[in-house]
Structure formats: C-alpha cells, structure tokens
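Discussion board: Methods & Data

I've been asked by a reviewer to show the raw model output for two of the constructs in my manuscript, not just the figures. I'm not sure how much to include, so I'm pasting the format here to get opinions. Each protein appears as its amino acid sequence followed by a line of discrete structure tokens. Is this the kind of thing reviewers expect to see in a supplement, or should I convert it first? Here is construct A:
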Amino acid sequence: MIIPSIDLQNGHAVQLIGGKERALDAGDPRPIADLFGRVGEVAVIDLDAALGTGSNREMILELLERAPCRVGGGIRDLQTARFWLDAGAQKIILGTAAEPELLNQLPKERVIAALDAVDGDVVVEGWTKKTGRTVLDRMQELKADVGGFLVTFVESEGRLGGIDEAQIKALIDAACDASLTVAGGVATAEDVGFIDALGADAQVGMALYTGSFDLADAIAACLKTDRKDGLWTTVVVDESDRALGLVYSDLDSLRVAINEGKGAYHSRSQKALWIKGATSGAVQKLHSIELDCDRDALRFAVSQSGPGFCHLDRFSCWGGSTGLRRLESTLWDRKKKAVKASYTGRLFSDDSLLAAKLCEEADELAQAAG
C-alpha cells in the first residue's frame, strides 16, 4: 500500500530533493495528516530533529491525535523511542541508532529500521558518508530485531525518476518476515501498485504534493476486480467494526470519499456518484479505508448519523444494533430527549453526579458477579 509522508521543518510540511534542497513548502501539516490518515499510516519525519537543528515534537503530538502515524527523525536513544511509542505512534523509525543493544529493549513489531542507500551502499550523517556496508548486509544483521525496514534510494529521493523493480524484489527477499517500505523515485500510481503486488509498501511524498497522482489513484492501482462493470465491492463498518452495509466503489467515488472525508460510493441503479445521506440526512464521516488481503474489496470505517445506514431506517442492513452499540444509541437518545430538571437530565449535565452513579452501578455489578 501507499504510506504518505509528512516531512517537518519549522512546523511546516516540506519536501526536499536529495535530502538537501527544499523543493516546496506545503504549510500547515494538520489538514494534510487528516487527508493522508484516511488511507492508513502516515510517515511523519522530524527533519529538524534528524539534523540536530531543532524539534517539531509539539506538532507531531498534534498529528498523532489526528492520524495513525509512524514517527521518525532524531530518535537516537531508549528514552526518545519510548516517548513516541507511549505518545501513540503506531511505529517508530530508527536510523543509525538501530543496533541490537537498543532494539532488544523495544517491541520488535513497532520498530522500523531506516536504511538510506546510494547505489546500494548505506550512507549516514545526512547522506554524506558511506559506511562501506550494503543495504542487504544491514538487513541481514537487523532482520531478527525489527518489525520492518524503510529503505530510501537517496539518488532518487524527491526526483520522481521511477523505481528499480529488480532492486525492490531483492530487498523483499532480504527482509524475510519483516515488512518492507521503499522510498525514493516513486513517480506514478502504477509504481505503488507494482510495489504493493510484490508485498511491500511505497512511501510517497513528492508525487503526492506535486499532484503527479493522488491517494485515490494509488489505492486504485492496488485493486483488482472480476466484475464486468469494474466496480470494487465495499464493506461499510462503524467505529466498532460492525457491518453496516455492502456497496460499491469506483475511482470517482473513491476520490470524493478520500478528499472530502465522506461516505461516497457508486450507485449501480443510478450509474452515478452516490453521497450517502445527501437526501436522507443519514450522512457518514469517513475515518479510514482499507484493502482486503486479496486486493479485490474495500472496507470503509465511518461514523453513521441519522437513523442508520439501511434504507429501511435501521442501523444496519442486517438489522438493528445489539449489545454495547445498542446501549450507546439508547444513551444518546435519552440524552437528546432528557428533560433538564429530570434525574436523567441531571446525570448528563452534572459530571460528579454521573461519576457517582457509574461507581454505584459498577459496584452493584461486581457484587452480583460474586
């Protein structure tokens, strides 16, 4: 899949060529994270921390509240590594600090080793110094201690020059059970699709910021379908992964869904774009899009408003909600209809009274459970 990247300098999202020359300043990274986060993990790199010229810590903490992020840049010791893991980073990216002494103190599945390479040789110190070790050698040394690798082709970084297919295949073989993300040179959505088909991820920056392709193009390049109409089967779920319905998507609807953060699909009956709730009011806020393992179906995670997803005014096309979801719906309905002076109304408006009531009910439950 695609891993969109946000490189930070002085609180701004930037893109560099070859790690040095600034090609563009995209400004405030927060709306960018909102957009990128709809398709999965976002790579957030603190260039200032990496270069030892500053820190974007507070901004990254904000981004972690908005999107699932893997964080890198300036993580050189155990304290900093644990700070970002505890702060909510899905994964952390370690460069020169990725050595067994440190890695063995961290959760393997949440650590990515970054290997920057020029013509296959690992380089350090801002890509200026060759180490005399190949990427394949370093992967062999570290593969038992990390959950994944990020390999950046420095000579291609920010230049949109395309990818070396044979090189990527060799890296995937070397990674063994560890995941692989490649960066540098990705120029087209087809590059993303090719890398995904091999079993790796493509970290993309410049191509997205310059409009060479967008997130919808990248996802579409990874998908396939056996339907004659070319549509992709799309399962819609709520925040708790409960199925709401089964619909269909095409490239146009996928683009609207991602860019606008809405439940947008393709209507087979109207043969046109369908924005869920546009007429009924039962709109959806899109949180995330995922692809299934066979790359022939999508899953949209949404917040559903109104009576529900189904055209029969039910929460789900498989009937009404049950369990905790039904209880939650009941509570929201009671809050909406509560008379201010009633006990229910007071519970919703008085935090201390609500806390006391919850403790009372929890205590009764514990006693009943023996």
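Construct B, same format:
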Amino acid sequence: MVYDLIVVGGGPAGLSAAVYAGRSILNTLIIEKKFFGGRLKDTAEIVNYPSVISSSGIALVEDFRKHASSYTTNNFIYGTVVDICKDEHEDVFEVKTLRKGTFKAKSVILALGTESRVLGIEGEERFQGQGVSYCATCDANFFSGKDVHILGSGDVALEEADYISKFANHVTIIVLHDDGIVDANETQKRIVFDNPKISFMWNSSLDKIIGEDCVNQIVVKNLKTGEKKTVLSDGVFLFVGLKPQTDIVNGLCKMNSDGFIIVDEKKETSVSGLFAAGDCTHTYLRQVVSAVSDGAVAAVAAERYIRRKEKI
C-alpha cells in the first residue's frame, strides 16, 4: 500500500498538517514516537494562541488531536521512525520504523520537533531524574516547599520559573547577563520580576551539580570575577536552547550547521516531495502558532505536489 502522505511527528505542526491533509481527502498516516503534542504537552499554560485566552498545553493538544482525528482518511500509529529514503525509480518515499515495519508514501512531512539541549555540565547527566530536570510541568510538584535553581533567561525559562514558584519555596534564576537583562518578552519579564518567590543571580553560569543520591548543592561561577561559590539547592531546571530531532534525515536533505532543516516558502526541503514544518526547521520563531501555520502550508504544498504528479 502506498499512502498519499506520511506525517512524521504528532506535535502542533504535525497535527495541523493532518487537519489540512484530511480536508484534502489525502490518505494519510501520522506516526508519533511517544506522545502526541510534542513539547506543547509539557507546557503548563498557553496564553499566546489566538482565541485561547488561557489553556494548558495538554488541553490544547487534545483539541488538536480531536480535530485531526475527525477525518476518516487520517490514520494514527505510535512508532519510532529510524530511516527515511526516497525511491527515485518508483518516485515514492519509504519510512522505516523500529517495530511497525516500513511504510510508503507519495510525499512526506517532517514534523520532528526539538528536544532540550544537554549542556554537559558536571553532574548534569548523573542527576537527571534525581534533581535535574528539563520539564517544569513534569517535575515541579516534586519540589514542593523546596529551593530550586533555573538556568536560562529566555521566554521559556521565565514562564517555567513562574510556574515552578507555585510549588517551590523559592526559585533562583541563574543569568549570564548583567543586572536586569533577560532574553524574554517584557510581559513575562514583569511577571517574574514582581514575583516575591523568585530572585536572580546575575553575570553567572552553572559550573557543577553536586549531590549523593540526589542534588543538594550547585557551584555557580561569577563571570566577571571568576569566583566560584557553592550554594544549597534541592533541584536544577535547565532551559537553555533546543536541539532539533533531525538525525533520521541527516544526509537526506539540507540542514544548517545546528541541524535544523532548511525549507523554502512552501516548507519543501531540498528533496522534491519532502516537506518539513515546525520547530525542526530553520525558522525565526518557534511557537505553537508558527508551528501550526507551518503544518498547514506544508500539507497544502504536499497536496499540490501529489496532484501535480498524478497528472504527469
């Protein structure tokens, strides 16, 4: 069997693509590795998606999935994609999974998303799940009444700091920049600066994470003086950068030096018929609204690619 379209990834971009594929009556297979929703499912509160004044990430994901599932031409499976290639002779794509077999399609949309970047800080790997976390929604409640530290000063870091403060006794944000300078929008900056349970360590970096069975101390380095200071900490949340999950297409299509997929205005990659959408692409903005837009564009472009091929 050859599907019209295979969508790899079930986050906002993938589910949006599925909606538009369904509207075009394309026989579509959506393959998700673990949980539908991508990083959105781990977001405590969404306040910047049009028409949604406030919602949890999980609730928004459920709405996306219900919409995509309402089209009878959409088929959903869980599976780990390990390889994608194009059979130039048959002019079809082959998508190989770890345990579900190999599927064929006339076109493929990559909605691979991103994952938290591991920083290589001493103690980071050792204490993952034992005081080191990359997900506030997943783990904040484990730190109820405790003192925690956050590394990062972007929108995500400050949003998560505010959420974690609802559980923790105190939250300290470690920031590389001078006093008062963060990489977040003004609204989020004001919310966090006004929160009495949140403080900052400016001009600082996280040098080491210490503990026995779990985290109990960290070493922070002052970037101006070089001085290192050991402070008590019950846990560390790391929100510094994202890594694209694009290893499975390494060598298949063009990517930038950071591994993000390069696409044109139709979200088509350097391989004809292969499209990419959302956070895994080389893009200026990585938000739910932009991922959804990408998915729509990719699905419409894929449908036109398929119809054009059928006429040849």
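Answer (T.O., handling editor elsewhere):
This is acceptable in a supplement if you add a one-line summary per construct. For B, something like: The first strand starts at residue 2 and ends at 8.
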